[in-house]
Amino acid sequence: MGIVKKQSISLAIVSYIGVIIGYVNKVLLFPNFLTDPAQVGLANTLINVAVLYAQFSAMGMNVVTLKFFPFFQDKERKHHGFLYWASLIVTIGFLIITLIFLLLKPFIVRKFSANSPLLTDNYYYLIPLGFATLFFTLYDSYLRSLLKVVVPAFVNEIYIRLMATISITLYALQLVNFKQFVFIYVALNCTHFLVLIVYMIYLKQWSFKPIKSFRIKTLRYQMFYFGLYAILSTTGNSIISNIDGLMIAGLLKNGLYYTGIYTTVFFMSTVILIPYRSILKITGPLVAGYWKDNDMQGMESLYKKVTVSNMVIGGGIFLMLWINIDNILSFLPKEYYLGKYVFLYICLGRLFDMIAGLNSIITITSKKYRYDLFFTGFLVILTIVFNYSFIVIFDMGMEGSAIASMLTLVIYNILRLGFVQYNFKMQPFTLNCLWILLLGVVCLAINYFIPQQKNVIVDGLCRSIPVAAIFGITCLYFELSSDLNDFFYGIFPKLKRS
Question: Helix 431-447 to helix 296-323 angle, to the nearest 10 degrees?
């Protein structure tokens, strides 16, 4: 866990700085200067659809890189031309998806023009956004395999959000109109993959020569079949993550208006996942290495440590957010209060996703990776059915979509937990997980006995300080997460009990 702790701490710092910038953008600037939530919905939906665009175009190479790059890694031989061949494959995928995208335009316009006309008016911006996102994710996977994760995280978490800050600031100062704002916003969001190219050149890890290698000949069939399953799995996961906003935009009257509210509170919940994402970026290559060495004991130890650490950090962050949700929403225009329980349902789903630990990485990097496709396919169908049912049939609007997302994440992870337990005889839970859960419930109960203050800052402090103290001190005193205890007492050694 040494590498995991060291780099995950750096990633967490970068991620939290990014979240602060993101909160300024999403909570203060975008909702207050883009006065129509439909405009906010457009800005957020363009990015979400670009992620889908990129995943379909990637041909599974993001996951293939994580699994197979260790077999190619050789700096002296330019990693046997791995980066060139991977880039060629995703370029072919991008051209195919772009052709389909153009052919489907009449159908998509019919479906979205009535409820979300702003989206169809800016349809072609998705092509450059999809291209930039595609190559950023490929290069991010490549650098992760080299265990160079901090700079890509900086670009993704901080740099790109600063570009958004520049865009909205120009609009807020009335230096550009809304149409010009959209153009600048898209253009600046297309620069992040270029920064990674410069970084790879600096590391002398940028090679675009079509090197013929015996390793490609040896592994090409394994990579092809793994990639085929990875295409379906990763695109399925992207659909699960992004389809809710699109369905709100397409199914609800004034859909982009509600999408703006939904995606804003959806972003507010992302802070919970920061520790999980930071650790996943480090543990992905480590898990692949455990499979290579057949070190099941090391993998199980990592599985349990990651879960309990995520539960403490994720649970603590959820507590701080939920007890202050009314205070947080007070900084937004009043229509965003409609998203309060959307926030709750999404947070609960994401918290369960964190608690489930490394089940997805363990499955997708194992010899039984093919089975992951069945889970993902089933859940894509389930996500669409749940969203349609809760949005349209049960007439629950965007809250229904949030409930659908929560249920999907819970079912998805239960299936994967069962699969890992059945096939590899590993599960991530210990008795400490139960104590952390009970502690969280107690802290929520304590919050309801704290009287509300008129000033939101004072109220936030009156709630946050006692709840954080009770939760944090209890976790430290009873050593509910040994890794977090080691980290804390490494910073404050004088506080450690003798």
Answer: 0
Show the DSSP H helices in 104-191 as ranges: 105-112, 117-121, 126-145, 150-154, 160-172, 178-189
Q: Where are the domains of the chain?
A: 2-429
> Whole-angstrom Cα distance, residue 433 to residue 266?
26
| SS3 state of residue 417 | helix
For the chain, the distance separating the N- and C-terminal CA atoms, rounded to the nearest angstrom, is 24
- CB–CB of 24/168 below 8 Å? no
What pLDDT digit, counting tens, does each position of 107-153 carry? 999 989 888 999 999 999 999 999 999 999 999 998 988 888 889 99
Query: 376 with 316: CB under 8 angstroms?
Result: no
DSSP conformational letter for 356: T
Q: What is the DSSP letter of 315?
A: H
What gap in Å lies between CA 123 and CA 458, rounded to an integer?
A: 45
> Residue 455: left (phi > 0), alpha (psi -120 to 50), or beta?
beta
pLDDT the model gives residue 215: 66
Q: Cβ–Cβ contacts within 10 Å for residue 103, how many?
A: 9
